[in-house]
Amino acid sequence: MKRKIICALLSMFMLNGLVTPIYASEINNANNSNVIERAVTESHNVIGYNTFLVYFTDDFGSGYSQNCGPTLAANALSYYKSRGCSNLFSENMMSASTYSQICRDVNFRNGDGTRFHDVANGIKKYANRAGYNCTVDIYMLNLWSDVTRDINANKVVLLNYYGNEEATTRHGYLVTGYRINNGVKQLRVETGLSDNPGGYIDFNSNMKMICVNIY
Question: Which among 186, 184, 191, 175 is positioned nearest to 49, based on CA atoms?
Answer without folding.
Answer: 175
